[in-house]
Write the C-alpha cells for this entry.
Amino acid sequence: MSTTQYLSDDELIERAIKALIDALGPGEAIRFLTMPRPQRLDSVQQHRQWQDSLDPQQFFEQIFGPPSLSI
C-alpha cells in the first residue's frame, strides 16, 4: 500500500500559476486570476428563489400523484 504525498500549499500555488502562465501567457493568466467571481447565494436565498418559481399544484402531483410507469 502506498501513501500519497501532497505538495505544500506554496508549491501547489507556484506550480499552478506556472502552468496557467505556460498555457495562457502572462497577460491572460493575470486576467483570469483577477476576474470577478459571481457571488453565491446563501442556501436560504436559493431555497426561497426555488419556492418562488414553484407551481405548488404541479409539485404535489409529482410527489403524491400516481406512480408513473417507465418501460
